[in-house]
Each structure stands twice: as C-alpha cells, then as structure tokens.
Amino acid sequence: MTTKVAQRIYLRALNLAAVLKSKSSFLLGPRMTGKSSLIRETLPDALVFDLLNSEDFLPLLESPSFLGRTIPSDIEIVVIDQIQNAPQLLDEVHRLIETRGIRFLLTGSSARKLRRGGVNLLGGRAGTIHFHPFWYESWVTISA
C-alpha cells in the first residue's frame, strides 16, 4: 500500500544570496531539513554539483581538479551538495577561492564527519550556517 503525503514548503528567512556576497559558507544540518530545496529556490543561477549523483561524484572523486576545469569563468557561485561524501574536494575548493574568487556553498549533514577526517575546513575562508529542522506546531500561539 502506498501512501501519499502532502508536502508543503515554507519559506525560510535565510537569504543565501546575501550570505554568499561576502564569502563562501558551509550549510550544515540534519538530513531532510530542506537544504537542497532551499538552494534550488534561492540560488537558481548557481552551478550545483550533487555528490549523490554519480555523474557528479565519480569524476570529482577520481580527480578533484576536475572541479576547477568544469566551472565556467563567468560563474560566481558554486554549490557542492553533500560535501561530507568527498571531503578531499575541500583542498580544490580552497584553491579556487584563492585563485578565482569563486564563492562556494558547501552543504552537508555531518560536520563531525568532516572534522573527524582531518580535512581542510578552509581556515576562515568560509562561514558556517547551521540549518535546523523547521517545526511548525499549529497549537503554538504567541500573544503580546
């Protein structure tokens, strides 16, 4: 038996374009909180590499420099979704921030997995946004 669940999308106050005007950022939060949906809605012109897609993941895993060769010169914002799946890409991201001034949004569900791996966390070149689950309770009221 298949059950369809009605899905509603609620707008968030987070303006990713404004955040990325000054520098790159990590967008970290639990799975299924809407990180990828928010990116699709608010950054439609960004170049997105989805590391859950084998067409994106395998060439980057084989050769991290593929990232720099793939990004056109007129692109300002690049999203790497699920960065915890290929943390070795962070050295190439670091290089591209320094040499080409590209701003990256790096999403992931596990900050611990990145830190544990002892990878390059971009040393101040990227901020961190913690994307928490959205809780909507119809019974909650706020009165002044």
Written description of the protein model:
It is built from six helices and five strands. The protein has a five-stranded parallel beta sheet, with helices on both faces. The chain has helices at 16-19, 35-42, 54-62, 66-70, 89-100, 111-116; strands at 24-28, 47-50, 77-81, 103-108, 126-130. With 144 residues, it is an alpha/beta fold. Helix content is 31%, strand content 17%. The model is unreliable at 1-5 (pLDDT under 50). The longest helix is centred in the middle third of the chain and has 12 residues, at 89-100.
Query: What is the 3D form?
Result: globular
Order of helices and strands: HEHEHHEHEHE
What helical percentage do the residues reach? 25-40%
Strand content: 15-25%
Structural class: alpha/beta
Largest beta sheet, briefly? 5 strands, parallel
